């Protein structure tokens, strides 16, 4: 190597060190100054975000000038920017639509156009297949061995081994860089791309099964509903084998012409208890107590949706989709006073509930909260017994409610009573076979459970059904019921004066003045696709206060992949 080459290499190396020093000692302090001067709960200014984007372009150009790849500079800048809100997530939000909607598909298209299948030889294909299969089996086999000494369950270790074989955009980017640098020939590049697609196609479907983790999105509009919500979550019976992940969404009506925001509250570990002076603080700290009591069995994420009420359902459905929720619990639009009278009626909430029922990507439950009529009942810390009833007539919605209730039956402070209503003189066992099998499986799973009971009540018509339901007044703390039921003489006459169609016939009756009870009610709707058609899904019971805008939600790929059981396993 001559002196000029050595001098050029030394100059390129020194220039790279200078670029790194500028990023560390100039750019990074500026970023921290921006964050320090951003008020709590405020969004980083547009000017700062645009300036950072321009700096990324300059860094890419500087990298090329210095003899490095253009990715080098922007990569260092990315490491210098703190992840998450308020700055990191704000930048992601600005780029998300542009990148995922335009650049990402264009990059995949270009990579596909570079792939020439006609240059591939049979011998090379065999060699690459052997390498890929060996690497895949090595990862799948080694991880469980290591997990054996770290006390990680075998199933989780196996899934982790599969995830290590998942490839995507990063691998394609590296392959393109190697091809441009002539490290890979056209044949090698084509084979590598095929291997990436093939392995990803095999691993991805393994993430599609429902899981043991119950993911509940609870929407809270009034902090008076928090005690009942906490009781519902506690009754959901979180365990290490079947944990409960709570996504709490605080619904805040947007007044004026301000832009809607979705805000993520800081993790509980950074919360100060004395910050609970705000409305959100009281709610978050109440959920914090639930999480602490169920340490290792339950997790809680808290968000605030600040939007116009007529658009609030979009935030709810978006968060439910992004967080892969199993069940969305939304508040009822009526609130009771302590004397049992209706205190307020919010029609905007009723409209929101109707839209959520139509568009939700999972099961939905409308929570009619009468907890204020019973006082400060709490089942946390084994303070009280929680009496739950499931009213069962038949159909997918009732199956969904029973599946959720069956999970509760394992809680030591919960008594579960299943009350099935049958039509007098009707003995069509074929039509009821699915219901019979499902109930039999639940009863079999609770054999020996003294806090579990099953009843059958035979009625002649809707009048008899209403009379039987009235007999349940003040017997329970929570009643679960499906929203819709198949056409039956049992329902005749009950739907003539329906006031709240979003609750269905039985749910509406349970909230009417004809049912004088202090029990809260959860009206459950099975997951429906667009157009109201039922999803085909096997119902197998197995038994911060510094608020910052949320622009990007964390992926739960591992939890989704480990998921192998029913949404409400018990």
TrEMBL record:
Protein name per Swiss-Prot or TrEMBL: Uncharacterized protein
Superkingdom classification of source: Eukaryota
Organism the protein comes from: Vaccinium darrowii
């Amino acid at each position: 190597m001559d002196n000029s080459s050595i001098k050029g290499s030394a100059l390129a190396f020194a220039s790279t060190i200078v670029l790194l020093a500028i990023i560390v000692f100039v750019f990074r302090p500026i970023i921290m100054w921006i964050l320090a001067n951003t008020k709590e709960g405020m969004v980083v200014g547009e000017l700062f975000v645009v300036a950072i984007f321009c700096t990324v372009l300059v860094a890419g150009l500087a990298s090329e000038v210095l003899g490095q790849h253009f990715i080098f500079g922007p990569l260092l800048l990315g490491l210098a920017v703190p992840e998450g809100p308020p700055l990191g997530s704000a930048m992601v939000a600005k780029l998300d639509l542009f990148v995922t909607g335009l650049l990402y598909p264009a990059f995949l298209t270009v990579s596909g156009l570079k792939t020439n299948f006609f240059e591939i030889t049979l011998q090379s294909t065999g060699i690459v297949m052997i390498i890929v299969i060996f690497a895949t089996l090595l990862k799948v086999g080694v991880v469980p061995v290591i997990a054996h000494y770290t006390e990680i369950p075998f199933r989780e270790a196996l899934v982790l081994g599969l995830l290590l074989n998942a490839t995507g955009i990063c691998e394609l980017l590296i392959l393109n860089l190697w091809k441009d640098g002539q490290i890979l020939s056209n044949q090698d590049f084509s084979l590598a791309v095929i291997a990436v697609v093939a392995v990803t196609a095999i691993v991805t479907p393994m993430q599609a099964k429902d899981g043991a983790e119950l993911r509940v999105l609870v929407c809270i509009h009034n902090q008076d509903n928090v005690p009942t919500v906490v009781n519902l979550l506690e009754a959901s019976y979180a365990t290490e084998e079947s944990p409960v992940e709570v996504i709490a969404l605080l619904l805040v009506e947007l007044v004026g012409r301000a832009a809607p925001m979705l805000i993520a509250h800081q993790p509980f570990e950074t919360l100060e208890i004395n910050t609970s002076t705000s409305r959100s603080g009281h709610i978050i700290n109440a959920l914090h107590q639930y999480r602490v009591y169920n340490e290792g069995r339950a997790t809680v994420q808290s968000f605030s949706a600040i939007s116009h009420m007529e658009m609030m359902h979009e935030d709810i459905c978006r968060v439910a989709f992004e967080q892969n929720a199993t069940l969305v619990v939304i508040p009822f639009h009526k609130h009771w006073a302590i004397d049992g009278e209706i205190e307020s009626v919010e029609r905007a909430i009723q409209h929101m509930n109707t839209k959520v029922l139509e568009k939700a990507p999972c099961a939905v439950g409308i929570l009619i909260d009468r907890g204020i009529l019973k006082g400060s009942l709490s089942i946390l810390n084994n303070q009280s017994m929680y009496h739950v009833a499931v009213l069962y007539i038949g159909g997918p919605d009732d199956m969904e409610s029973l599946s959720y209730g069956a999970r509760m039956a394992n809680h030591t402070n919960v008594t579960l009573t299943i009350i099935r209503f049958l039509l007098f003189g009707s003995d069509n066992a074929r039509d009821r076979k699915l219901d019979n099998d499902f109930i039999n499986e639940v009863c079999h799973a609770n054999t020996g459970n003294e806090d579990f009971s099953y009843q059958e009540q035979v009625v002649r018509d809707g009048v008899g059904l209403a009379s039987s339901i009235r007999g349940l007044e003040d017997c329970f703390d929570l009643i679960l019921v499906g929203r819709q039921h198949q056409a039956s003489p049992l329902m005749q006459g009950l739907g003539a004066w329906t006031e709240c169609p979003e609750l269905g016939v039985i749910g509406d009756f349970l909230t009417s003045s004809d049912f004088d009870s202090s029990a809260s009610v959860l009206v459950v709707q099975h997951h429906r696709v667009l157009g109201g058609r039922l999803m085909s899904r096997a119902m197998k019971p197995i038994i911060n206060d510094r608020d910052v805008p949320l622009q990007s939600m964390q992926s739960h790929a591992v939890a989704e992949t480990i998921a192998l059981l029913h949404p409400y396993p018990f």
